[in-house]
Amino acid sequence: MAIASTFLLFHTFVIITTFISSSLAYTTFHPKALVLPVTRDSLTSQYVTLLHQRTPLVPIKLTIDLSGQFLWVDCENGYVSSTYHPAHCHTPQCYITGSKSCRDCSLSRPGCNNHTCNLFPNNILTHINEVGEVALDVVAINSTNGSNPGKMVTVPNFLFTCGSTNLLKGLAKGVKGMAGLGRNQISVPSLFASAFSFHQKFAICLSSSTTSTGVLFFGDGPYVFLPSIDVSKSLMYTPLVKNPDNSAGPIFHGRPAAEYFIGVKGIRINGENVILNTSLLTIGNEGEGGTKISTLNPYTVMESSIYHAFVDAFAKELAHVPRVKPVAPFGLCFESKNLGSTRVGPGVPPIEFVLQGKDVVWMIFGANSLVQVSNDVSCLAFVDGGVQATTSIVIGGYQLEDNLLEFDLANSRLGFTSSLLFIRTTCANFNFTSSSLSKETF
Ligand SMILES: *[C@@H]1O[C@H](CO)[C@@H](O)[C@H](O)[C@H]1NC(C)=O
Ligand SMILES: *[C@@H]1O[C@H](CO)[C@@H](O)[C@H](O)[C@H]1NC(C)=O
Ligand SMILES: *[C@@H]1O[C@H](CO)[C@@H](O)[C@H](O)[C@H]1NC(C)=O
Ligand SMILES: *[C@@H]1O[C@H](CO)[C@@H](O)[C@H](O)[C@H]1NC(C)=O
Ligand SMILES: *[C@@H]1O[C@H](CO)[C@@H](O)[C@H](O)[C@H]1NC(C)=O
């Protein structure tokens, strides 16, 4: 028995290692990091990236999901590629996904082949969730030295899951799937890290404008933004916290969580503690409570009691500025002309998310705390998640813009910069002009 299972373990290890290193076999150039553009869709506020896939290569628009477990794309409509391979049951590709489902589908087209393993691609926005074939195809991406895109590199057998066209409902126009950047073995960052033997690390910098481009890095820094500012020097760190369960909703209960939680211990406004029920800030046995980061929420969402305490405290610190009628979904609004202006946005009391110790804080200034909703009115850009909120605080996109976040999985920590406006740059300042016109050929 013992010998048999040791052998099985060894065997599994060998095939997984072989599978991962087979991605390397074709590459002669070893990039240190990779880069992708990120834009915000103005209608849905989704953050969208562009990844080249298939043979011949086509650019595929994908909604970014920081909590997503893997890459999925619509294979039902318009998937044409001479290098598409379904993952057949009991192969290394299936083992690595942890899939327990083996299915026959007899149309013999991308997304529907006999004897293939399956995962459950889901659209967290519409809660549509269905079975999808695991598959492999070529992905191409630009390398970077941290300052510019460099040579293009390819991964011949990049693992993903097929979804249906129905799964695209609610996603931004032109989007063909979702890029899961979650904390697990088959997320997009993990696959790039194993294909190129990188550190398990990626960084995201979301632009605050829908007309300019932010950036996603895989691998090590530096992260250089015009005019020659290496923002990796401005990072502070806080541990990433493991959630024992998946907080994405009841249908995900008991499924492995790929989300990024951090240990917010308290909130301060203008240096004053907001009085709140701190037990809501810890993660319970069923995955409830705590603070996570999500690119699918346009604004930070707080459990009701936290939200009300937070809004009241903010209003108190800004009592000298007259309020105007709130504009949904926000609860506290001001006439913009009564708010001063600073390098980091409207001159309003700073918000601090207090992390470990008393000195490690995530500072949020006017550019990330107030949103202009009309010509005259600006609102506190936080929303009420209700009393039933599973996760107590979900830090959303608006609060992340023009901040660089580095998810360092090897060291289980999050690096964050606070507003880049302080150091006179923005997430839109990565120089996307390629420094190398030559392309790597294989
Ligand atoms: C797939 O499986 C079905 C039923 O097992 C079989 O009838 C069909 O011929 C198979 N198709 C292919 C392409 O192997
Ligand atoms: C590489 O970068 C250049 C310049 O930004 C861009 O035009 C090209 O599409 C990128 N290639 C890939 C594979 O992403
Ligand atoms: C604080 O929150 C916990 C978890 O939801 C709850 O059980 C407890 O009753 C709350 N305490 C107060 C004083 O509201
Ligand atoms: C990256 O390459 C460009 C062009 O070769 C160069 O100007 C730049 O200094 C390099 N950046 C780093 C951080 O090495
Ligand atoms: C962006 O990078 C390119 C290629 O290295 C360089 O020629 C160009 O001057 C850079 N742009 C700016 C604004 O520095």
Automatic annotation (TrEMBL):
UniProt-listed Pfam families: TAXi_C, TAXi_N
Cellular component aspect of the GO annotation: extracellular region
UniProt-listed CDD domains: xylanase_inhibitor_I_like
One of the GO biological process terms: proteolysis
Family annotation (Gene3D superfamilies): Acid Proteases
Major site of localization recorded for this protein: secreted
Domain Peptidase A1 span(s) in chain numbering: 47-417
Subcellular location: Secreted, Extracellular space
Top-rank taxon, per record: Eukaryota
Keywords attached to this entry: Secreted, Signal
Molecular-function GO term, any one: aspartic-type endopeptidase activity
InterPro entries the UniProt entry points to: Aspartic_peptidase_A1 (IPR001461), PEPTIDASE_A1 (IPR033121), Peptidase_aspartic_dom_sf (IPR021109), TAXi_C (IPR032799), TAXi_N (IPR032861), Xylanase_inhibitor_I-like (IPR033868)
PANTHER family in the record: ASPARTYL PROTEASE-RELATED, EUKARYOTIC ASPARTYL PROTEASE FAMILY PROTEIN
Family affiliation: Belongs to the peptidase A1 family.
Designated name of the protein: Peptidase A1 domain-containing protein
Lineage, top ranks: Eukaryota, Viridiplantae, Streptophyta, Embryophyta, Tracheophyta
